[in-house]
Amino acid sequence: MLPHVLLCLIAPLLVLAGDDGGITGATSSAEAAGYSCDASKCKLPNCACASTSPPGGLSPSDVPMFVVFTADDAVQSYTLDSVNQFLAHRQNPNGCAPKMTYFTSLNFTNYTLVTDWYVAGNEIADHTMTHVGDPPKDEINGNLIALNALAGIPLTSIAGFRAPFLNYSVNTLKLLAAAGFTYDSSAAASIPVTDPGTDAFWPYTLDNGMANDCLEVEGSCKGQPVLPGFWEIPMYAFFDSAGAAGPHLMDPWLDIPSGSTKVNDTATLEYMKNTFTAHYTGNRQPIGLYTHPIHLSTTYPGVNPSNSTINMINEFLDWAQQQQNVWIVSNEQLLAWVRNPVPLSQLNDFAPLKCSTPQVDASQKICNGIPGNEDGLLSHCAFSDFPFYTCYGCPETEPTVNNPNPPQQIPDGQQARIRLPANCSTPFWDPIGGKCLCTSSQCAFNDVSRPIGPNGANLTGGGTGGAAGASASPTGQYIPFNGELFTVPPSVWAATVVGLVGAVVGAMTVV
Ligand SMILES: *[C@@H]1O[C@H](CO)[C@@H](O)[C@H](O)[C@H]1NC(C)=O
Ligand SMILES: *[C@@H]1O[C@H](CO)[C@@H](O)[C@H](O)[C@H]1NC(C)=O
Ligand SMILES: *[C@@H]1O[C@H](CO)[C@@H](O)[C@H](O)[C@H]1NC(C)=O
Ligand SMILES: *[C@@H]1O[C@H](CO)[C@@H](O)[C@H](O)[C@H]1NC(C)=O
Ligand SMILES: *[C@@H]1O[C@H](CO)[C@@H](O)[C@H](O)[C@H]1NC(C)=O
Ligand SMILES: *[C@@H]1O[C@H](CO)[C@@H](O)[C@H](O)[C@H]1NC(C)=O
Ligand SMILES: *[C@@H]1O[C@H](CO)[C@@H](O)[C@H](O)[C@H]1NC(C)=O
């Protein structure tokens, strides 16, 4: 029998993940898209027309076949166990372990595991704070602030967004571009690549508006919204034996394939292979495994995924990886290649596909996202609905949309932990000693501020958290965009940030 507290945790996670992101047919058409783009004017790396052909004019035989792997929702040991059972034992053609993208929402997230996952090389992206569709600005930007403060993720590293329930609007896209995101990945590529009217476009910028989901999202397409340099990475559906009438987008293995009356792993494997092959032998548009990992966790109390489904997904990946030039990647890696599309012959030297391990001495006691180093140093934040761990000091209250970075709760006899500053990378930052272990250009890091504060104020990392209380107040020092050091008296600081964003020490204009 499960303790009551566990049951409380299970129900919400599954509810959040349920029914998230299904499509039943085409979500766009050429007519609804009304898309036009002049490729002679729109050029890489910062502009790309929506196109079914590979970027850079490459011929498909020179193009890697990318399999994007993503996970959505809260990050917990259970969800990472789930992802690990598909990826941990794999290697890409260059010998690197595959990286993936985690679209993180914060309710029920164990912050320290986000740090670990990021430091291990994965991409951390935004999925709103509390998992809401068509999100207001604070749901999107509060997630950035909390992930930066409590998981030590540099703001510039959080480049992508996926809307919960894949429910986004034109407004969502505008909010994302305004907050300095690089891409959204909520739109569906819903028509098979073998269909002449396919909407399986390579990632493209919104210089000429959207070309996907034109039948679904009001006010988009026919040239709208115009967001220069902001990317859409379509989510590529699989199609079962019903072809265009049988699309499967997220967690296809939870769906009943056309012609079956219940989940059928044999049929699912068959159509996943067929769709892969159609992409692989055609224009090599990427495909994606878009997962809610909680459904496949074998360690989460009360969840009993079928072994056959887990084995089927691994069989699919084994099969895909046996083919030439297949790479399992994060969205960030895919986009890096699209913006700079080098042919297969140069791929081994392509930096974004490489892997490196931060050189931190294993004997160092430092809370840095590397389990061996941080052992014994984590703060346990004992909130009743979901206790979590962090390297960066517990907040007095759980982060909320109205207050994503509450004041730090400092245990008796200890000092406040100092959060990741804008010029040190996560594995080298010691939040207890408040110092950067690395000063060489090899590992130094320069975060850039983002206009995610109130009234578009630019924020960068740092500080100790919170708006009130002398000991928990920020240092008041930050380096704004123009590089001039500026000191805010603590009293002014506190007055300015109360009820706003807490004390991410940023270039907030004091007025
Ligand atoms: C949270 O993280 C801590 C530290 O890594 C770990 O011991 C604990 O099992 C995790 N709990 C969950 C539910 O993720
Ligand atoms: C998420 O967390 C917030 C604040 O902790 C809480 O008010 C809200 O009910 C939670 N939402 C869900 C769906 O659990
Ligand atoms: C999208 O989310 C908004 C806000 O939660 C909700 O009002 C709306 O009904 C949702 N739309 C769809 C299509 O689910
Ligand atoms: C499952 O799918 C396979 C392959 O399409 C088919 O041969 C088999 O009859 C299906 N099984 C059930 C129970 O529907
Ligand atoms: C599923 O696989 C695990 C590990 O191989 C095994 O321990 C378990 O008994 C299997 N469950 C079923 C229902 O076959
Ligand atoms: C980062 O910035 C702080 C504050 O300006 C400075 O003291 C420190 O030396 C810098 N660290 C590195 C590694 O550049
Ligand atoms: C934030 O930075 C951007 C880019 O440098 C700049 O355009 C904008 O004016 C800044 N906003 C504020 C409030 O300083």
Please, could you describe this protein's structure?
This protein is α/β, with parallel strands linked by helices and 511 residues long. The protein has a domain at 72-340: Glycoside hydrolase/deacetylase (TIM Barrel, Alpha-Beta Barrel), CATH 3.20.20.370. It is 22% helix and 12% strand. It is built from eleven helices and 19 strands. Strands 1, 2, 3, 12 and 13 form a five-stranded parallel sheet that branches. Strand 14 (379-381) and strand 15 form a beta hairpin. Helix 7 packs parallel to helix 8. The longest helix is centred in the middle third of the chain and has 16 residues, at 265-280. It is globular. It starts with a helix and ends in a 14-residue tail after the last helix. Residues 1-12, 14-18 and 467-511 have low confidence and may be disordered. Residues 260, 264, 266-267, 270 line the site of one 2-acetamido-2-deoxy-beta-D-glucopyranose (NAG).
SSE topology sketch:
Blueprint: H1 4-17, H2 30-33, E1 65-73, H3 77-87, E2 101-104, H4 111-119, E3 123-126, H5 137-151, E4 160-161, H6 170-178, E5 183-184, E6 188-189, E7 204-206, E8 227-232, E9 235-236, E10 238-239, E11 247-248, H7 265-280, E12 287-291, H8 307-321, E13 326-329, H9 331-339, H10 371-374, E14 379-381, E15 388-390, E16 429-430, E17 435-436, E18 477-478, E19 486-487, H11 490-497
Parallel strand pairs: 1-2, 1-12, 1-13, 2-3, 4-5, 5-8, 6-9
Antiparallel strand pairs: 7-8, 10-11, 14-15, 16-17, 18-19
Bound molecules: 2-acetamido-2-deoxy-beta-D-glucopyranose (NAG) (7 copies).
